[in-house]
Amino acid sequence: MTAVMNAVRARQARCAALGFWPGPIDGIDGPRTRLAYAAAQDAQAAKGLAFHHPTGITRIHWHWTAGGYSPNAVDLRSYHALIDGEGKVRWPVDLTTSRSHTLNANGGAIGLAICAMAGAQERPFSWGKAPITPAQVSALARETARLCRTYDIPVSRWSTLSHAEVQPSLGVVQRAKWDITVLPGMDGPADPITVGDRLRDLVARELSTF
Question: How many whole angstroms separate alpha carbon 157 and alpha carbon 159?
Fold first, then answer.
């Protein structure tokens, strides 16, 4: 059966993001998970913070729309925020509004998407008609950094991640998603976590300027 982002799995991901390893992100509330949860709660309380933000937001999922540089009607219904071809960020809805951007893993996650990659192909690789631009990548990093600061989201593989990383990092099976596994200047797609680390490095740099 396909795994879902249940409450325990979400808690495990949050613990891992905060630096308290709960063991496998598997949705099972075992002893190691409970110990990590208690330690994470104590650490947050020491900083005057709850385990997570009152909105319940704990993660940011990065996507591309597989469309053109302007959001279409489907994009506006699917994501919380969209980055157009000029790098401008558009928020069609409040971030607590339900959106279906990640299979079985939408709860607690902001869907932040780059409007790009229409006609792109993973194998053999083709950028398609609307390749991701450097301006869009920069905007993605800036907006992610802003959201991380506002909603107490650590920059980590379990809390700021691409759609392609959801399955290997959170254990929730997706349908052959490869966004975002290629960035401007790359010859083709690469390991999703390696590419995600590049994006997280950009986010960390943005946070250092705040």
Answer: 6
* In contact, 15 and 33? CB cutoff 8 Å: yes
Closest-CA residue to 98 (of 85, 107, 86): 107
- Reported as a single tens digit per residue, the pLDDT across 155-196 is 999 999 999 999 999 999 999 999 999 999 999 999 999 999
In the numeric block, the tokens 């325990």 are attached to 8
To the nearest 10 degrees (0 to 180), the angle between helices 134-151 and 192-208 is 70
198, amino acid identity: R
- The full length of the chain comes to 210
Q: What is the tens place of the pLDDT at every residue in 34-53?
A: 999 999 999 999 999 999 99
Rg (CA), the chain: 17
Tabulate helix, strand, coil % of the chain (nearest 5). 35, 10, 50
pTM above 0.90, yes or no: yes
